[in-house]
Amino acid sequence: DQDGSHIKGLIINFIHHNWPSLIKQNFIEEFITPIVKVQKGDRELSFFSLPEYEEWKQSTKDWNAWKVKYYKGLGTSTSKEAREYFGDLLRHKIPFKYAGDDDDKAIELAFSKQKVEDRKTWLMHFMAEKKRRRENNLPD
């Protein structure tokens, strides 16, 4: 969820600031869990982002015939689901790949106290582009 994404960024920044070599050695991995699941009969689909779910809805004529469950953090998952997630690590673990100086600059832009104005500009451009894409029915 959005909180998890923000926390993930804070942890990456903390590690980048204190132990940058861990970032550069691709030491960090993310464990993803669904934020939406849909079920119809014995079929179940998992979505790991809202845009992925919205795309499925757009392409599925009978989407409203499916039972939808939204997940807000790990507390929403059952113990059975947790066992499923940890039983399929290849699907749920995503390694972070360090891509060089551009990654360092992006982390600094997102979190540095000295980059507040640059961050505001970056976010304003991001939101304007997102709005433009939405108004033109383009994917995020």
Return the CATH topology of the domain at 35-92: Dna Ligase, domain 1
Shape: globular
Q: What's the oligomerization state? A: single chain
- In terms of per-residue confidence, which ranges show pLDDT below 50 for 5 or more consecutive residues? none
Strand fraction equals: 5-15%
Average pLDDT metric: 92
Number of strands: 5
Compute the gyration radius: what is it? 18 Å
Verbal overview:
Its cofactor is Mg(2+). Its EC number is 5.6.2.2. Keywords: ATP-binding, DNA-binding, Isomerase, Nucleotide-binding, Topoisomerase. Residues 31-131 form the C-terminal associated domain. InterPro entries: DNA_Topoisomerase_II, Topo_IIA-like_dom_sf, Topo_IIA_B_C, TopoII_euk, TOPRIM_C. With 140 residues, this protein is an alpha+beta fold. The chain has a domain at 35-92: 2-Layer Sandwich (Dna Ligase, domain 1), CATH 3.30.1490. The protein has helices spanning 2-18, 20-24, 50-59, 79-87, 89-92, 101-111, 116-135; strands at residues 29-31, 36-40, 43-47, 67-70, 93-95. A three-stranded antiparallel β-sheet has the order 3-2-4. A two-stranded antiparallel sheet has the order 1-5. A hairpin with a 2-residue loop joins strand 2 and strand 3. The radius of gyration is 18 Å and the shape is globular.
